[in-house]
Specification:
Pfam families: cNMP_binding, HTH_Crp_2. This protein has about 210 residues and is α+β, with helices and mostly antiparallel strands. It has helices at about 1-5, 60-65, 85-95, 95-125, 125-140, 160-165, 170-180, 195-205, and strands at about 5-10, 15-20, 25-30, 35-40, 45-50, 55-60, 70-75, 80-85, 150-155, 185-190, 190-195.
Length: about 210
């Protein structure tokens, strides 16, 4: 339904789909590739809020409340999707109850995930939070390198991990160093390779 109402677009890696502070003129349904959703904090750091992939709708919350975009969406690789204007998107929701219900359920699930993360931030040590974020991203959006079916590669940097885990970049550096010492991850500029998901899950359990 959304595909039929919009137009197909392709974004290359690093291209911004939506910019924080911009007016909500459209939504996008991701069909191929991954995007990262980030927001700038008052202290000047950029926080990673989420990674979205095929089948997921982005930009819908700003369209629903009419406020400026609260985050920036950037292509992590070549991304293909369908773009629908805000006016057409809102009309679709009014015309098709099942679609509106699906969007509401999606937003509710994201809010629940956000509430769970905030609860973790208040109760768990920083190292455990970093491990949980890393594990969640690897399981949902990591890619298996050739010849390494049990590994998952992620294109996120240390500051983005810090923002997602609600901790400092220094804590992320210390945690990644410990994980490297135990043979669980390797890191390079803007990229983390998780080598042992099962053992990382034990770390993430606290």
């Amino acid at each position: 339904m959304i595909r039929a109402a919009g137009r197909t677009r392709t974004w290359q890696q690093g291209v911004v789909l939506f910019l924080e502070g911009d007016p909500p003129d459209s939504v996008a349904l991701i069909e191929e590739g991954l995007v990262k959703i980030t927001a700038d904090s008052d202290n000047g750091y950029t926080s990673l809020l989420a990674i979205r992939g095929p089948g997921e709708l982005i930009g819908e919350m700003a369209c629903l409340d009419g406020r400026t975009r609260s985050a920036t969406v950037t292509a992590m690789q070549t991304v293909r999707g369908t773009v629908v204007t805000s006016e057409r998107f809102l009309a679709l929701l009014e015309e098709h109850g099942p679609l509106a219900l699906s969007v509401i359920r999606s937003i509710t699930a994201r809010l629940r995930d956000s509430d769970g993360l905030r609860a973790d931030q208040g109760a768990l040590p920083a190292g455990v939070r970093v491990a949980r974020v890393l594990l969640g991203l690897a399981l949902r959006h990591g890619t298996a390198p050739p010849g390494q079916p049990g590994s998952r590669a992620l294109s996120v940097n240390q500051q983005e991990l810090a923002g997602a885990a609600g901790t400092s970049r220094e804590s992320v550096v210390r945690t990644l160093r410990r994980l490297q010492d135990h043979g669980l991850v390797t890191t390079s500029r803007g990229r983390t390779l998780v080598l042992d998901l099962r053992t990382l899950a034990r770390w993430a359990s606290g």
